[in-house]
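Dear colleagues,

For the upcoming journal club I promised to circulate an example of a predicted protein-ligand complex. I picked one with flavin-adenine dinucleotide because it came up in last month's discussion. The inputs are reproduced below in full, followed by the predicted structure.
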Amino acid sequence: MEIFNYFKAQTIEEAYKKLNENPSNLIIGGGAWLRLSSKVVETAIDLIQIGLSQIVETESSFEIGASVTLREVEKNESLANLYSSIVNNGVHGIMGVALRNLVTVGGSIFGKYSFSDLITPLLAMNTEVEMYKGGRMPLEDFLKLRTREKDILLKIIIQKEEGLGYYYKMKKTGLDFAVINVAVTKLNSKFKIVVGARPSLATFAVKAMEYVNNQSKITPEVIEETAKIAVEELKFGTNSKASEEYRTELAQVYIRRGLKEVTNNEN
Ligand SMILES: Cc1cc2nc3c(=O)[nH]c(=O)nc-3n(C[C@H](O)[C@H](O)[C@H](O)COP(=O)(O)OP(=O)(O)OC[C@H]3O[C@@H](n4cnc5c(N)ncnc54)[C@H](O)[C@@H]3O)c2cc1C
């Protein structure tokens, strides 16, 4: 990557204006992922001075600014009260502390990385994204946006819900990317099931959720059937990390474990 100019924006308006002055201008978060690319950047725009570095707890939600680092997310004790700490745990499994001290929530969400250990748990919770021009929308809708607008991610908003949660990142070595990752949550008797690193981007197992959420009792047979429906409906693929078959097997196992865990922990 080559950067010709570095611009520390003082306001969000200033950052947005600079972003749109040149097609190769971009926002820089921690810069860890950008650094690995071969991009030629006219101006990298830093948001650090515009007040997006806080985690704000309100009565009903947590608002996490784009410049908050993943280490700050991991260490936040209040966030750990949500869904059995799946966000804190998800982030904890990313590389080492040095990287987590650098990389940001903004870069991690805007990048829409298919291997993301942040997006998978967030999707299984009630999470929204706030863009400067695009406004507020569910994380699910943001992930589906096809065009890469020249916009700025300001913050994510997580509803304060004390549901039950399970998150598992299957990786081959301690510092590796996920071979597959699975989040299962339960709130008011409703389950959500999300699978990421398939190797494509995290998504809901919609049919499996519909099936399990229509059952009056969660028996071992229901759990088995739910996991089966999930892997039948989701698309898995092969890459250098794992084959489609292996991913399918793993997803079924971890969905089953997730459903068991959130069901058993309720009692
Ligand atoms: C070696 C390595 C290993 C990793 N392993 C994992 C892993 O196992 N699991 C995992 O989940 N993640 C992993 N990551 C990804 C990491 O967690 C971050 O998600 C990633 O580095 C992006 O964060 P950043 O702050 O570095 O973003 P940057 O590299 O600065 O930016 C990434 C992209 O987002 C854009 N951007 C940044 N902030 C904003 C904003 N506020 N608004 C609009 N656009 C913005 C940038 O223009 C760029 O396109 C790894 C990264 C590295 C370098």
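Two points we might discuss: The pocket of flavin-adenine dinucleotide is lined by residues 26-34, 36, 47, 66, 70, 94-95, 99, 103-104, 106-108, 110-111, 113, 115-118, 152-153, 177 (CB under 6 Å). The chain has three domains: 2-46, 55-159, 164-264.

See you all on Thursday,
B. R.
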